[in-house]
Specification:
Elements: H1 2-22, E1 31-36, E2 41-46, E3 52-60, E4 65-73, E5 78-79, E6 83-87, E7 92-98, E8 104-114, E9 117-127
Antiparallel strand pairs: 1-2, 2-3, 3-7, 4-5, 4-6, 4-8, 6-7, 8-9
Length: 129
């Protein structure tokens, strides 16, 4: 009986692993990323995936500012061009364009130019395929 258990249990574990690999990843959902700088706090909402996307930025405190967003993949040396974010209400901005060129770990930079000066607030995300 024990010998049978030693054979059946590893087979079940292997089958469970194969089923897990074949099930596929769920579709990535929107991410809400938070970052803090010297003068502002930002919330970035986007769906982290390669290709064109829409990134929404919330700025706290809400003050008139020029906002842009870019991405860096530090371990690969990739940087994307800065996307300007247009106003979308008090303290809210939206940028559209390609932010990620491939899957992996990315650092998003939100550049805020306001009355208190210019700062870049960084947040991290993982981009799925």
């Amino acid at each position: 009986m024990r010998r049978r258990l030693y054979v059946v249990l590893p087979v079940l574990v292997i089958l469970a692993g194969i089923a897990w690999l074949l099930r596929g990843d769920p579709a990535p959902g929107p991410a809400e990323l938070r970052g803090r700088g010297s003068h502002h706090t930002v919330v970035v909402r986007l769906e982290p995936r390669p290709g064109p996307l829409e990134a929404r930025v919330e700025l706290h405190p809400a003050s008139p500012a020029e906002v842009s967003i870019f991405a860096v993949m530090p371990h690969m040396g990739h940087t994307t061009p800065e996307l300007p974010a247009g106003p979308d209400g008090p303290g809210r901005y939206v940028a559209r364009g390609e932010l990620f060129t491939m899957t992996g770990a990315w650092e998003i930079g939100v550049r805020v130019r306001g009355t208190s000066g210019t700062e870049v607030i960084k947040v991290n995300t993982l981009v799925a395929g």
